[in-house]
Design a protein that fits this description.
The chain has one domain: 2-Layer Sandwich (Alpha-Beta Plaits), CATH 3.30.70. Helices cover 30% and strands 17% of the residues. It has four helices and eight strands; from the N terminus they run βββαββαβββαα. The strands form three sheets. A four-stranded antiparallel beta sheet has the order 4-5-3-8, with helices on both faces. Helix 1 runs antiparallel to helix 2. It is globular, with a radius of gyration of 16 Å.
């Protein structure tokens, strides 16, 4: 397993028992949508508070507006985020994810999450993210259904309508949700 340096602290991720995928490749410039997943540091539930999830959604809207990518779907869970987005016109999805993670971590690090203080963490987000190219309508629908069903699968709610931190309400309510999405 390759060792990835972590925060320039001399700590290798392999020593922290995080398996990084080998051979991870990103394919940009094809005009595909991207199903992106990124997690909180050590998959801790740093987004367990509604206010924290609200910050992620608000910052997602700002990053989207600034970089000009299409947002097809999203869900913000207590310890991870899923996005279905187009490529921004002038930067890569990697840059967009980096910007979103940076903006949210700066805002959320100021908070106290019960016994866990964010400022005591070495990082707010995991160092990398998962990116899957979506280029068929069938796969787009599959990824949206997966995202919207995630809170139900995790038993956080009994129906997707009860989890406002997703794009489900945009599709069910003709575009009305916490933030605007590009309905397909």
């Amino acid at each position: 397993m390759p060792q990835v340096r972590f925060l320039n602290l001399g700590i290798g991720l392999s020593s922290l028992r995080f398996a990084m995928p080998t051979g991870l490749q990103r394919f940009y410039g094809q005009g595909h949508l991207h199903f992106i997943t990124f997690s909180c540091y050590r998959r801790l539930p740093l987004l367990k508070r509604a206010a924290a999830r609200d910050v992620v959604v608000q910052e997602l809207a700002l990053v989207r507006e600034r970089l000009g990518f299409r947002l097809i779907g999203y869900v913000v869970m207590p310890e991870h985020v899923h996005l279905l987005v187009s490529e921004p016109p002038c930067v890569t999805p990697s840059t967009a994810v980096h910007d979103l993670k940076l903006r949210t971590s700066r805002k959320l690090r100021q908070w106290d999450s019960g016994a866990l203080r964010f400022e005591e963490l070495r990082a707010f987000w995991q160092a990398r993210f998962y990116d899957f190219n979506v280029f068929t309508e069938k796969k787009k629908k599959e990824k949206l259904e997966y995202m919207h069903g995630n809170p139900v699968t995790r038993r956080l709610v009994s129906h997707p309508k009860d989890w406002p931190w997703s794009s489900w309400s945009n599709y069910a309510n003709r575009g009305r949700g916490l933030i605007c999405v590009d309905l397909f």
